[in-house]
Amino acid sequence: PVLRGRSIDVPFTPEQTAALNRLAVQSQTTLFTVLLACYNILLSRYTGQDDIVVGSPISGRTHREFESIIGMFVNTLALRNRPLQHLTASEFIADVSEHVFSAFNNQDYPFEMLVEKLVPQRQLNRNPLMSTFFVLQNFDSAIETADNENNPLKIIPFYADDQTAKFDLTMTAYEKDDRLLFKIEY
Fold this sequence. Notes:
- By secondary structure, this protein is α+β, with helices and mostly antiparallel strands.
- The protein has helices at about 15-25, 30-45, 90-105, 110-120, 140-145; strands at about 5, 5-10, 50-60, 75-80, 130-135, 165, 170-175, 180-185.
- The two termini are about 15 Å apart.
């Protein structure tokens, strides 16, 4: 269901963004994984829960022959993590990295089949597995610079504030140049 919502933007400085990227390199993982780990810790602190399931979209283009095909191949990953208090940040990032890697390896498994297999107690006004989402968008720069001699088409993303919320909380991080911008939809 689509609920009335709002969003706020939280820009990070280039220095904060560089620190997160350094942490990803030091952890031998990705920026996505580090940000997801931070998001899980934040959710755990706010809710008091240590079993967190966060949804995340995945492109679904696992085969090279799909790269040039127009259309939606998106699937939803249910990323379950346990930000236990006794874990260090490094240990938790390593756990999240392992879970993300496993989920990416199984990204072709349809979300609908996962829901059917788990058979959670259903509520029509709630998502069956998660009430929060995390998204990392890192393609804006490539899209905006598509205007060149070989491709005269220039695409510029348009971000509309539609004042709806598909989940209780969605954290979207945008990579732009040397900074991160977070949009928190609630």
